[in-house]
Each structure stands twice: as structure tokens, then as C-alpha cells.
Amino acid sequence: MKILLHTCCGPCATYPVTRLLSGSNEVNCFFYNPNIQGYREYIKRLKAVGEVCRHFNIALTIPERYEIEAWFRMVVGDLRDRCSRCYKDRIEKTALKAVEIGCDVFTSTLLISHKQDHEKIKNICEEAAKSNNIEFYYEDFRKGWREHWQMTDELDLYKQNYCGCLFSEYERFKNKEDCKE
Asked: Where along the chain do its domains lie?
């Protein structure tokens, strides 16, 4: 089976890639994440995904452009629901890319995080699969949470501690002493 794996970062890719490759599948990582800010953070995460792909000898597909302006326009209308809009954008682009490059199915590393809305992501993936006439491969990758951190350490990958968007960074650090001047 040829699988397109939407990949948000290197650490989150480790366990899902291992699981997907264990079934003799062909895996291609797709790094589409215009939510990640600033540009240096985006590049750090892209490099970490590249390291994972090199380690596992799998393909990496990246968009032609970093679409930060489009992402801001998309979420600014309803900041309370920005995560749903962001998930939908990234998953929809993944489903379209999977069809474009001839994959049988797609899935996402977002399904490994205990900090993301797992059911919402799953539902958005199912909707994108239906509307784009492609299969969504579902697996609850959260069961590999410990293994993913172990592999992240073994590969010495860049680790981040927020989803990537400006709003999540602010929410994560706004009350931290080390961020105050």
C-alpha cells in the first residue's frame, strides 16, 4: 500500500513511520504546515522531518511555498475555532496531494499527540477522504507515545513544545517565568 503521511514534525513522525513501514507499505511524508511560525521554526521542523525520512529511507514531499499569509487569513475570522480550521486545511491538502501522487491512502502524525483533539482530527480526515475519493488510514498512534520519544532521542531530533502557531506559543509560554524580561 502506498501511504501519504501528513507530517507535522520529526518527533511525531518517528512512531507512525515505524508502524506504517512494518506492514511492508511504501510511505511518503508530506510536510504541509503553514501554521508553524516563525520561518526559522518552520525550517527547524522541516529539517527534523528530513532527518527522519533519511533515517528510514523514505520520500519527503514539501509544498512549493510557505503559505503563512493564507494561514493567517484562514484563522483570523474565528480564533476560538482556529485549530479546527488549521486541521482541516492541512488534512484537505494532504488528501489532495495523496490523490495527485497516486497514493492508496493517507493519514497524519497529528494522531499521535495527546495535546491535539484526536476525534476532531479523525473526523476531518474521514471527511477529506470522502470528498477527495481516497481512503483514510486510521490508527491511534498515541499508543506509541513512549516509543516516539525514545526514537526522537536516539535520532537526536529537534524537539518543540508547542504546535507551531503563534497563538499556541503564546498560550504555552504566557505565564512562564523564564519568558518574562
From this structure: 2-175
Cβ contacts of residue 138 below 8 Å, gap of 6+? Answer: 107, 111, 122, 125, 126
The three-class DSSP label of residue 2 is strand
**What CA–CA distance (Å, rounded) separates 52 from 38?**
22
pLDDT in tens, 13-36: 999 999 999 988 999 999 999 999
Residues 6+ apart with CB under 8 A from 108: 5, 6, 7, 8, 90, 91, 94, 121, 125
Q: pTM of the entire structure?
A: 0.93
Backbone angles phi, psi at 78, to 5 degrees: -150, 85
Cα dihedral 154, 158, 161, 166, rounded to 10, equals -160
pLDDT in tens, 80-121: 888 999 999 999 999 999 999 999 999 999 999 988 999 999
Length of the chain in terms of residues written? 181
3-state secondary structure at position 60? strand
Domain 2-175: homologous superfamily in CATH: HUPs (3.40.50.620)
15 contacts 37 by C-beta, under 8 angstroms: no
